[in-house]
Every structure is written in structure tokens, then in C-alpha cells.
Amino acid sequence: MASKSFINEILRKGIHLTSIIIVLVYFFLGKQATLTLLITYLVIILTIEHLRLDRGFKLPFVNFLLRKKEIKALGSHVYFTLGALVAVSVFSEHVAYAALLMTTFGDASAALVGKRFGKIRIFGNGKSLEGAVAEFLVNLMIGYIFLSSWPVAILMAGVATLVETYFVKIDDNLAIPVFSGFFVELFFFLNSYF
Predict the structure, then answer these.
(1) Which residues make beta-bridge pairs with 128?
(2) Measured distance CA(41)–CA(150) in Å, rounded
(3) pTM (2 decimals)?
């Protein structure tokens, strides 16, 4: 039988599937519509976070999914939205798609595989090698699907996996899309000049 923390992790990661909606809105309605959607969502969740953190409202539908460290701090959904805003605003369309989906599916695979099968701990932060390998493979497939280049997919998947595995105090929902997208765009920029 699955542990309560494993089931909670599945529910938390399920919320991140909203990245699919972001990608679909971007694909069908364009960048501006996606940015408008993300800003609207950010205003809503910041209002909820204000009520929860500043005004002390008990919001069971929010509190249920928060990790212990998020009870008195911003929830990861805020950082995810900020990361999505950066990805859509700054990166080319396909890099943004890959960055968003790596943040969702790569991170989810690391968490779920790591919690369920993780035995070998790395970096001294509780993360597992099994989770990191699962994330890298998922990220690699996402990168190749959207960028059609194995070297670029390996770069992006590697950066996303390292950030998720190594960063502890910086929320990975913000760091994964920012770092993975940045390094791919930097690669494209340098490649165009050399």
C-alpha cells in the first residue's frame, strides 16, 4: 500500500499538470494570451497567499497540498507561475514548452520515483540517484520532442535535472524553467556566432 506522503506527492504533482494548459494556450492562442492568463492566475494566487499568510485565513483546499515548509511561506504554485512567466516571456516558443513540461513531468518523475524506489542518496540533501535518473530520462524525451536535437535535449535535460537535484533552498519550480531555458538559449546564441 502506498504511503500517505507518496499519495500527497501524487496529488501535488497532479496540480502541476496545469503546465499542459499553459502549453496548449500558447500553441493555440499565442504568447500574449498565455501571458495574460499567467498574470491573471498570479494575481489570484497571490491574493489567496495574502489571505492565508498575512490575514491568517485557514484555507483547507490550499493547506491540504502544502508541504510543511510552505505552511508559513509562499506555496510552490507561486514559484511555478513565476517560472512559467519567465519561460513564456523570454524564451523562444519551443524552449518555453520544453522548460514548462520539464518542470512538471521531470520534477514529478524525480519525486515519485525517488520516494517510491530511491535507495541511493546523493548530494547529501535527501534526493536519490534513482529519482535523478528518472527525471533526466523524462526531461531528455521532452527536450528531444520539442527541440529535435539530441545535443540540445541532453543539455536542457542535464541542466533541469541538476537544478532539481542540487538546489535545496531555491524552489525548483522557478529554477528549473529559468536555468534550463537560459542555457539552451545561450547555446543557440553562441552557436549562431561560432
Answers:
(1) 121
(2) 34
(3) 0.89
Alpha carbons 89 and 95: distance in angstroms, whole number: 11
Cα–Cα dist 120/29, whole Å: 44
What does residue 127 show for φ and ψ, rounded to 5 degrees? -75, 155
Q: Which residues, in sequence order, are CB contacts of 75 under 8 Å at separation 6+? A: 45, 49, 62, 65, 66
Each residue's pLDDT tens digit, 135-153:
999 999 999 999 999 999 9
Judge whether residue 1 has pLDDT over 60: no
Q: Cell for 49?
A: 497567499
The yes-or-no verdict on residue 2 having pLDDT over 80 is no
Distance set, CA 167 to CA 41, 138, 161, 193 (Å): 26, 19, 10, 31
Residue partners of 79: CB distance under 8 A and separation at least 6: 171, 173, 174
Q: CB 46: neighbour CB atoms within 10 A?
A: 13
* Side chain identity, residue 92: S
- C-alpha cell, 3: 504511503
